[in-house]
Amino acid sequence: MTFRSNQTLCGFNALCLISLLLNASCGFNLCPPDCLCYESSALVDCQSRGLVRLPLSIPHGTWMMDLGGNRLTEVRSRAFMGLWSLKILLMSNNSIQTLQPQSFSSLHFLERLDLSFNRLRGLPQDFTQSLSSLQQLRLDHNLLQHLDSSSLADLENLRRLDLSYNLLRVIDVRAFSSMSLLSLLNLEGNRLNELRDGLLSRQQSLERLLLGHNNISVIGTEALAPLKSLTLLGLQGNQMERIRFKTFLKLKTTTTHLLLSSNPWICDCELQRVFSKIQHVRRLRVYDYRDIVCHAPPVQAGSSLASLDSQLCVAETATVLAITITVLLAVIGALVKAEHNRKHNQAASDAESEKEEK
Fold first, then answer.
1. Which of 11-20, 123-132, 203-212 shows the highest mean pLDDT?
2. Which of 74, 121, 214, 347 is the most buried (most CB within 10 A)?
3. Cα(274)–Cα(46) distance, rounded to whole angstroms?
4. DSSP code string of 332-349
5. CB atoms near residue 61 (< 10 Å)
6. CA–CA separation, 11 vs 120, rounded Å?
């Protein structure tokens, strides 16, 4: 019995050793060098370790992995193969320039991915191919210039997407077509020139749309129409000179707060009427109305639109009235002069006739 027990124990230890070498479970998992592993929470902490490549021997049961603050420059194909349990992957504050095809191919249950503060210039076409469970995606503070529809497909469960502070000029009109559950879309600090019709056609659940500090001068007439749940629309710090009332009237929401300051507004009666109409729509609130400052014409530059109140329309009406009166007086003067000339000519003609008769 003793021999068999010892033999059995030795056999178990041998199997355990083999399991350890294969990074399998035998009471605990191997932890990558330079990282900290917390078995109770299945957390692997590799933050700020000076890593230049992804660590090997990542425990298969890892639920959360923090690789932030390292010196990673790329993510290779199938880099996270076998990490079926991974739900949170943090890779911010690295120097990642390249995501190879199928970089995240095995992460079918990943819910949160943070790639912010890197140097990404583009996304592979299959970037989200295996990320159907993803709910939060951060790509802010990169160097992205263009988004096409294939790069962000398969994100039907995504709730929050942060693309702020990139170099985006163009976004494919179908880029967000898979994201029907999206509640937050942050596009602040890019180089967008317009908000196109159809770009947000499937975002009926969108609550916050942040477009501040771009170069937007045009908003499509139907661009905001699909946004049934929008509570905050940020358009501050763009290049808008005028807006159309009908564009905002298309928002069929309960309450939407608008941020519209720091644009080069041309303050005239038309603009004041548009803002007056917007503020009379109960579901719309211009949150920063007091901070809206006129850029033109020169006589109004630097003045807040609120301080001018209805003066712009009064001044415009007075100007129109003065011009109308001036024109009317000119017409009356011309008519009087014409009548005077007619009578004078008639009198001269009558005198000539009398002379001929004599």
1. 203-212
2. 214
3. 54
4. HHHHHHHHHHHHHHHHHH
5. 14
6. 50
280-314 tens-digit pLDDT: 999 999 999 999 999 999 999 999 999 987 777 86
Strands (DSSP E) found in 139-275 = 146-147, 160-162, 170-171, 184-186, 194-195, 208-210, 218-219, 232-234, 256-259, 265-266
CATH architecture of 213-335: Alpha-Beta Horseshoe (3.80)
User: Do 286 and 275 meet the contact criterion of CB atoms below 8 Å apart?
Assistant: yes
Q: Two tokens at 89?
A: 């992957």
Q: What does the block give as tokens for 29?
A: 């998992």
pLDDT at residue 256 in the model:
97
How far apart are the C-alpha atoms of 28 and 228, rounded to whole Å? Answer: 50
CATH of 29-150, one of 3.80.10.10, 3.30.420.240, 3.40.50.1360, 1.10.260.40: 3.80.10.10
* Mean pLDDT, residues 189-196 taken together: 97
Q: For position 24, what pLDDT does the model report? A: 40
Q: Are 259 and 236 in contact (CB under 8 A)?
A: yes
